[in-house]
């Protein structure tokens, strides 16, 4: 093989082997980039660490992909998209980026797994604390607020399953302050089929960020059952949180997927049979959600959950109900962000 060809081949192999973390990391978006953007977050071990800023402050390189609407008429709103336990999905782009961009809203799809070397957490949620997903969404909020094309007062968040739990957490000012030092906050929150067996909250009622919350629930969801989220929504409303709930008949977990499918996942873990609990992130106390009777200790609550977590869940697309959810999300966001009607 000629020396030049050999050198070119070696160069190509070297470039292919460069890790993603070697890409340029940005701290602000003043240069107006699009596409994949590498930035930093942190990786708390649990939500208590996040709220109390007890986490390791060493930056964690992560990335997201920014999609802008075709027409930028002044500063536009934006949505942070947080994925579920299966990691980023094509439907995040095919459905939700499309919906937001058509509304004149930018979309930033955050990947919390790939940069950390995780494929998915369906069979083992202990691979990464959901607190890291919270931290990533808040770090994305900070980053987007530096973009001269984006209105920092109209940045929302939407999440699916584990990412839907992020939306619920973002209603509490305690989580926001775990990452953000100024008054930057989400303007609207949307949670699709979040896990609601444990509600991270405060007793007495917590200071709230003021962002309205929309929950999109599947009637037949056996992974993160809708009835648990209805109970959680009642508690949140009682304590001053604006919650709008949409129930989708005949819909399973992941009903908004754009790929027609139905599948049983025998290894996936679910807390659907567990007693619902309130975990007070400020005071380190734990309660039964229905009667607010306290657990004796964290260990007592943990023992409850060790006994009740089971495996085996269903998921599948429902194209009709997914289209309904598009319309509901659009209506909710237009109201929350002061957008004109379609």
UniProtKB/TrEMBL annotation:
Residues 64-268 form the Dienelactone hydrolase domain. The keyword tRNA processing does not apply. InterPro entries: AB_hydrolase_fold, Dienelactn_hydro, FrsA_esterase. Residues 1-22 form the signal peptide. Keywords: Hydrolase, Signal. GO terms for molecular function: hydrolase activity. SUPFAM superfamilies: alpha/beta-Hydrolases. It holds the Pfam family DLH. It comes from the Bacteria. This is Dienelactone hydrolase family protein. The lineage of its organism: Bacteria, Pseudomonadati, Pseudomonadota, Betaproteobacteria, Burkholderiales.
């Amino acid at each position: 093989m000629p020396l030049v060809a050999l050198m070119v081949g070696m160069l190509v192999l070297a470039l292919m082997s460069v890790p993603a973390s070697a890409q340029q990391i940005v701290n602000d978006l003043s240069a107006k980039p699009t596409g994949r953007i590498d930035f930093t977050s942190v990786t708390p071990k649990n939500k208590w660490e996040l709220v109390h800023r007890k986490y390791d402050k060493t930056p964690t390189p992560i990335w997201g992909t920014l999609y802008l609407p075709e027409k930028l008429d002044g500063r536009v709103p934006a949505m942070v998209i947080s994925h579920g336990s299966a990691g980023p999905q094509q439907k995040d782009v095919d459905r939700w980026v499309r919906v937001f961009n058509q509304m004149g809203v930018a979309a930033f799809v955050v990947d919390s797994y790939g940069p950390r070397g995780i494929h998915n957490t369906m069979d083992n949620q202990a691979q990464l604390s959901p607190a890291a997903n919270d931290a990533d969404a808040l770090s994305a909020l900070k980053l987007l607020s530096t973009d001269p094309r984006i209105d920092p007062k109209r940045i929302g968040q939407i999440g699916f399953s584990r990412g839907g739990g992020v939306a619920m957490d973002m209603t509490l000012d305690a989580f926001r302050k775990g990452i953000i030092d100024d008054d930057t906050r989400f303007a609207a929150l949307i949670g699709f089929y979040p896990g609601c067996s444990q509600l991270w909250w405060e007793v007495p009622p917590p200071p709230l960020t003021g962002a309205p919350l929309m929950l999109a629930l599947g009637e037949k969801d056996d992974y993160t059952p809708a009835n648990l989220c209805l109970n959680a929504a009642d508690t949140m409303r009682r304590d001053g949180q604006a919650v709008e709930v949409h129930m989708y008949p005949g819909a399973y977990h992941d009903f908004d997927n754009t790929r027609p499918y139905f599948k049983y996942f025998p290894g996936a873990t679910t807390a659907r049979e567990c007693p619902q609990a309130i975990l007070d992130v400020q005071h380190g106390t734990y309660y039964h959600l229905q009667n607010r009777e306290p657990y004796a200790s964290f260990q007592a609550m943990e023992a409850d959950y060790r006994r009740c977590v089971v495996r085996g869940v269903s998921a599948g697309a429902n194209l009709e109900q997914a289209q309904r959810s598009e319309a509901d999300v659009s209506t909710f966001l237009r109201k929350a962000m002061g957008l004109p009607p379609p």
